[in-house]
Amino acid sequence: MILYDFDYERPNTLQEATALLRQTEGKARLLAGGTDLLPNMRVQVLKPTMLISLGAITPRPPQAELDGSIRIDALTRLADLENSEFVRREIPMLAESAHVVGGNQIRQVATLGGNLCQETRCLYLNQEHDYQFTAPCYKRNGDCCYPFPGNKPGTCWSVYMSDTAPALIALSANVDIIGEAGVRTVPAETLFTGNSLEPLWLARTEIISSVVVPPIPTGFGWGYHKSTIRGGLEFAMANIAVALWLENDRKTCAGARIVVGAVSEGPLRALATEKSLVGQVLNADLLWKAADDASNEINPLPHHGFTRNYLNENIRVYLRRTLITAFERAYGMDA
Amino acid sequence: MSELKFVGKSFKRKDGPDKVTGRALYSEDVKLPGILIGRVLRSPHPHARIVSIDTSRAKALPGVKAVITVEDTKGIKHGFVETPRYPADQEVLARGKVVHVGEELAAVAAVDSFTAQQALELINVEYEILPGVFDPEKAMDPEAPKIHPSHPKIADKEPFSNIGGKTECGWGDVEKGFAESDYVREDRYESQLRTHGYLEPHVTLAHWESDKLNIWTSSMGTFVKRAKLAKTLDLPYSSVRIHKTYVGGTFGGKIDLYSHEYCAARLSILTGRPVRIVASREEIFSAYRHSQPLIVEVKTGVKNDGTIVAQQLRVINNAGAYRGSGVVVVFLAWGFTMAPYRCPNLKYEGYSVYTNYTVRAPQRGHGCPKVRFAIESQLDMIAEALGIDPITIRLRNARQPSEDLPNGDNVHNGNLPECIRVAAEKSDLLKKYGEARKSPQTGHIRRGIGIGVSAYFGGSLIYPNSSGVMVKMNDDGSAIVLTGAIDVGQGAETVICQIVAEELAIGMEDVKIISSDTDTTPQDIGAWVSGMTYITGNAARQAAGNARAKLIQVASEQMNAPVEDLWVEDKAVFNRQNPQQRMTYDQVFAASVATHRGDTIIGEGFWRTMRDVPTHPSLATTKGRWTENYAFSAQVAEVEVDIETGEAKLVKALTVHDCGFPVNPALVKGQVDGQVSMAMGHAFMEEVITRNGYTLNPNWLDYRMPTIHNMAASEDADVITEEYRVGEPYRTKEVGEGLVSGILAAMANAVYDATGVRLYTTPFSPERILSGLKKLEPSKTTGVRDQQSPEVL
Ligand SMILES: Cc1cc2nc3c(=O)[nH]c(=O)nc-3n(C[C@H](O)[C@H](O)[C@H](O)COP(=O)(O)OP(=O)(O)OC[C@H]3O[C@@H](n4cnc5c(N)ncnc54)[C@H](O)[C@@H]3O)c2cc1C
Ligand code: SF4
Predict the structure, then answer these.
(1) Bridge partners of A64?
(2) Centroid of chain to Cα A330
(3) Do B215 and B73 sit in the same domain of this protein?
(4) Domain end: B581, B608, B635, which one?
(5) How many CA atoms lie within 13 A of B138 on its CB side?
(6) What is the ipTM of this complex?
(7) Are A1 and B704 a contacting pair at CB < 8 A?
(8) Pairing of strands A70-73, A207-213
(9) Which ligand 1 atom lies nearest to the CA of residue A163?
(10) B168 catalytic per annotation
(11) CATH number of the CATH domain containing B490
(12) Rounded to two decimals, what is the model's pTM?
């Protein structure tokens, strides 16, 4: 139960919503599906003075732009993403990453924008603080950190667990953001600050209006995996999104993006490994080595009962598997 | 057997339509005018002295109708066990000190949740923090912080601190037994903290009206609740009425008195208004009772052919901050040790140790899974060392039908060897076993198979010790059953109706049931000692038989035919010698009223297990009989393990059990599947993660119970050794909780079979399995960076 009073507005356009955000000086929050916001209000991680519901605004269906990129309205429900023929055909990785979020009931209301803007998570944070961990930690504007007391003051290692963000980054997606000065467009990966206290470079008065996935290169293959304990209705132990694209010879790597999420303040890219793959003639051995290299590049934070050691192992193995799958898809073994 | 029409058939559940259409009323659905919202103030410390509690500001808050602390109670203690050795030990609200996080200190009743929350925040408690202790072995150290004094009988002899109770027993001479053994091994097994996972939270509505306390509460036995509430409130039982409500699952977690139940009642008495308290899921996870994590140390000596010669067990229970059912679980752990296999020399010691954790409750199986996990894992290791297969070693030791047990119980017709044989045959275990470890394997998935066996008691003596049932005939020939039995989802009402329908020869739709209301139904044992179908079922059989006898008597007078010639069929009494001569029940009823001084034909029945045994066995020494019948089972698990990531899952389960006569086979199957799924959670997923007595994952997302998608194929086969005889006592046995155990052990053995990794601690997490695999093949460890990783967070 949310035990405090707040105001509620239901504007008809995103412009009205930004105006409301400005009026409340950023103390309001957008309410999309509410599946992240409302639980966080219940445990008092967030205490907005006003909720601005986006419920009256109908998202535009995903569509191809003239340049071949695909625009997806940020208000699109995850269920609509995963079930869209168009998205499944054109950007199956995004459909897959939407499909693994929560459970069906969650996906029926959760939106893509909300998924990107979700709060970071930590076992000490995501619970009521009536009698447990009552002293607020840094993330709740206090001055302690329960799991990492040895860290520099003000450091929070809660993890950002969006399942769609790694896929969008691997797809080199951009996001359109509506703010005071109009619309700005930034690559999805630059949204992340690397600081769990304020995980997104997004002013409180800004709204993500859409996500734009640029044209998929030829010879493209993808791999996506979400590691969990029970296979569903669960946040990730780690999630992995890999994109590979090949030269016309269908062997030489033209480009690669390797992204690991849910183990850090934001999604992590294995930049050095990505670079080392470009120009190489790919084969299983090489991809195995790339997986090892990438997992060495990624430094997971221990979280939700998983040790850093085990996360390393899990990520390494699934990087291998997703890289192989991506290569197979790129090569055309998987039509 | 063939003439049975109702028992032995898979009738649809009586409660099914209400539940699936949302009509069923659970405690939270009961609406009364003027309800106040109750909330409980809980301790933020695992161990602290209460210097002072100041409720004045809360009381002054507008909208607050009452605030109570222990000073507003009679100070009467209660306990899960209340015996001379283990007297009641817990007050309904903390007095003097708090001993676990979330312990109840005060309660408020207010006009709404918001005000109630504010009131809690206005209560000022001053604490003096005391050192806490969380590991039971550390708590036993003489120097450890003292939560409560050790039990005087144990403190006299042993130096340990924090001993809440101990069970000690044995027979033969273990030292001699080990000396005579060809092979002896010693192992130690541990289990995690698990919760019950009932979907309906704890909810209590209390209304004090006209000197009567009316209670609607989610429970497993209304008569136990009445007894404990009346006692702590110092009211006669007749002043307390626990009403029937539907119950959304319990699994052991809703027996005994809970502080919030007392608080709702007391607040209602003080305000004269209905008071409802609903526990949040967080509260249930972080302040309520979970099951008991056991450390089980087993030493077993065998002959070369696998015959067990001697066994020594030391069990340590992390019992939490009050006695709870902690002293029961260390008694039961002995029973679950000795029931399946013969063991001529046994020494058993079980300690229940106080720690600064929440109090513990029984959980489906009450210790059995942890004990069987230990013994069955070790038995496989012994078999392997001796070059015997897992089936042979079990058959060698399994108790035979009619065998006497050392405690004076008897196996009767129970047939464990047959269960083992059928399980081996149906699963083809001997052909599959060892395959994954033998031939060169490709790919990263390994499949393994394993077996575990178990035996479970069917009803024992514990308050209220017996069940009564009444069957009232209606003048149209239909019947009303009054029973105290509570349907917690297991199908109690359906089964009782089937029995009554059978004994009275009327249709299922002709039987209506009124249940689990302490004012209107007879006393009942409740749904928590695995005896409902046997004990309440026999009481129902007797009550219906009693009504039938009256019907036949009246009919015999009317028809002028001897009682011996009369029998019942289709709501009528007929003459076996002359089937044309018959009287319908409505006619008989009218005749009874006309000729028997208005007798409306009410049948009574009652049943008690072990009727000649004065009381329950000794928790301290195990002396005395435990139960009348044992349900045996053998279960086989097939698992798949990803040897690169350590991820493992159950893919196939086989349960072969002897549950006695299955009154409703579909409900039996439901129990089997439910237990397989619960054991799977135990094996691979669930753990209440704690740190210093605080709970880190108090929600369904971070505490991972299996979902329907995790459920493995679950087959079952029964080895039924008992039959139902109309009008005669019959034996049903236990099927509701014994089957979480063998299958857990089977999964452990199957993981070993798949990988060669022997696990001594549940859950079998990917991390544990992977680190086991790495130990087996250290050379394969590549790419792991040597990092300083903080403890599991
Ligand atoms: C049981 C359960 C399971 C879950 N499992 C997963 C999981 O497996 N993986 C996962 O990634 N998430 C999971 N979540 C979290 C959450 O459901 C998803 O992230 C979901 O996509 C959030 O979308 P929403 O529309 O509900 O966001 P909301 O809760 O409405 O919003 C979340 C945040 O984003 C802001 N916001 C929303 N839309 C915009 C926008 N267009 N521009 C700027 N800010 C915006 C809101 O103000 C709020 O701060 C789970 C949640 C629950 C309750
Ligand atoms: S990691 Fe962050 S959220 Fe977790 S306790 Fe520390 S500061 Fe709080």
Answers:
(1) A70
(2) 24
(3) yes
(4) B608
(5) 8
(6) 0.97
(7) no
(8) antiparallel
(9) 11
(10) no
(11) 3.30.365.10
(12) 0.97
